[in-house]
Amino acid sequence: MAAQCFRAVPDDIARIGFAIAHRIDPSAPTVTDLTDEQVRLVEHVAATLLAAKKPLVVSGMQYGSPALMRAAAAIASALARTIPASGLSLVLPECNSMGLALLGGLTLEAVMAQARAGKIATLVIAENDLTRRLSPAAVVELLEAVPNIVIIDHTDTPPCRDATLVLPAAAFSECSGTLVSQEGRAQRFFQAVYPPQPIRAGWRWMQALARAQGCVNVQAAARIQATGLTTWQGLDDVIAALGRACPILAGMVDAAPGADYRIDGQKLRSQTYRASGRTVIRSHISVRDQPPPGSPDTPFSSSMEGAYTPDMPPSLVPGYQVPSWNSVQSLNRFQHEIGGDMRGGISGVRLFPAPDATDHPIRPCATDIPAAFARAEDSVLVLPDTRLFGSEELSMLSPPVAARATPPTLRVPTGAAGPTHMTLHLPDGAHTLPVEPLAGLPDGVVLCPSHMVSPAFMFPCMARITPAGEAT
Questions:
Q1: Does pLDDT of 383 surpass 80?
Q2: Distance (Å, whole) CA 364 – CA 73
Q3: What are the start and end residues of every segment in region (Disordered) (predicted)?
């Protein structure tokens, strides 16, 4: 899809981005000391963007470079002065990164500091593998510093082995909740799978822990009662409480209708008319027909029976199906016109709407342009090499997916290819890897598969590399 590919370190790409912004808008800061190749690239990209009707600038957090994202914002800001329809999209690393950022809270560094100071008696880790966030030494230090570790998770993560208590949480398909996209749009997801007991949604375990704590600690009971946590009856109560505690998330209530929503007095069906086999699913246990499982947190009935109409809210549409229409074409019946808005309204809700140019003037471009990358004599810049098969956490727990993951390699510039194996000295220790030359990779840079060699490696760092077997 790309018309041209240019490989450089994040800071050098950011410098090119700022130069493009200056070429589009001369009032933006200028960038000096560009190579002839970079100047030609700047001219080409700027001309291409100015010729577009709706240019979109895309960047993200893969390389952990604020300068890279500021450069993307500078280009979008420069374009917006002449092309109001221009846009900016910053890709985030995980499906709910934006939601967690809006929720706020302590950083892992702050938690570590409190643990070292002995200020944490009990640490609850909810659906997160700390080995992918902290170095092995930091994980051990944290687990040893806190007397009681409670883990609520749907996956058996390494810290579970040292936890005081492990509680089985429902996975995303086994519960309902809300995610906030990189656009800032709150989007509801609904339970599709009904797990056996004692698996339950993470917030229900939190509620159970709070009730248990209130029974044995009078002082804690008063604080817990003040939060209202023990009185929650369903997901709607959780969302409402979250909106009160964090006002910027208050709009989540409107992401989808609540559990009491009905159409003509009926719950909505979550299965298609063609769905069948409910009895067969558990025929190895009993051939008795079982009633559909209850779904108290949603307006759905887990069956083929229930309300279903093209005018229903889009966030509640379980699938597009209209008699005499193929499944893909059925979508047209749910829209006002082909390619138009949904008849039931907009799905989800933006928590921070796009600013109006008349009320919010275009912000000036950033001025903190990074210096050009200078290769170090005794170290290289290690960039994460995110792989489709190998870097993602949950998919690698599936044997068929894991089987497609190729062994990790250390990608180096073609001019630096030497020994067949080299040792990469990351903060968590030394890792010996086979070497794979990569054309176009700048000198002084190597690529290491993220999360495959070092579980916590996901952002760039400076490190030494030595021939395998060489004394350090």
A1: yes
A2: 10
A3: 286-306
Where are the domains positioned within the chain? 10-91, 97-255, 380-467
Express each pLDDT in 56-91 by its tens digit.
999 999 898 999 999 999 999 999 989 989 999 999
Amino acid at site 365: C
Of 273 and 375, more confident: 375
- Is 326's pLDDT higher than 80? no
Query: 152 in helix, strand or coil?
Result: strand
Percent of the chain past pLDDT 70, that is, above it, reads 97
Report the 10 Å Cβ neighbour count for 161. Answer: 10
User: Is the CATH number 2.40.40.20 carried by domain 380-467?
Assistant: yes
Tell me how crowded residue 425 is: count the other CB atoms within 10 A of its CB: 15
Q: Which residue has the tokens 């944290």?
A: 142
The tokens describing 290, both together, are: 């079982």
Find the DSSP H helices in 267-331.
278-281
Of 256, 212, 248, 253, the C-alpha closest to 230 is 212
> For domain 97-255, which CATH number applies: 3.40.50.150, 3.90.850.10, 3.30.390.30, 3.40.50.740?
3.40.50.740
Nearest to 128 by CA among 176, 92, 160: 160
Give one word for 226, left, alpha or beta, with left for phi > 0 and alpha for psi -120 to 50.
Answer: alpha
Alpha carbons 54 and 41: distance in angstroms, whole number: 20
More confident call, 290 vs 110 = 110
CA distances from 372 to 5, 14, 369 (A): 19, 9, 9
Please state the pTM of the whole predicted model: 0.89
